[in-house]
Amino acid sequence: xxxxxxxVYVGAQKNLVKHGxxxxxxxxxxxxxxxxxxxxxxxxxxxxxxxxxxxxxxxTFVEDDFTEGAYHDAFGSVFTS
Length: 81
Fold this sequence. Notes:
Order of helices and strands: EEEEEEE
Number of strands: 7
Helix content: under 10%
Distance between the termini: 33 Å
Strand order of the largest sheet: 1-2-3-4-5-6-7
Strand content: over 45%
Shape: flat
Structural class: mainly beta
C-alpha cells in the first residue's frame, strides 16, 4: 500500500486498514516498524527503528504505544522494561 504522502505499508490488511503482520516505512523520517498491527495501530510484538535518534525498540506495543521490551540506544546500551 503506497500512501499519498509516500509512506509505504506492506503486509496484512482487514477492511482496508493495517491488521496482522506488516512493515511500515515513513518516507520523510525513515522511521520503520515491522511487527503486528491491529485496527491500523501497532499492537503485539514488533520492532520500531528511529533512525534520526539511532534508537531501536523491540518488544510489545499496545495501541501504538511501546509497553515493554528492550530500548537499544545509539551507544550500544540496552535497557529493558
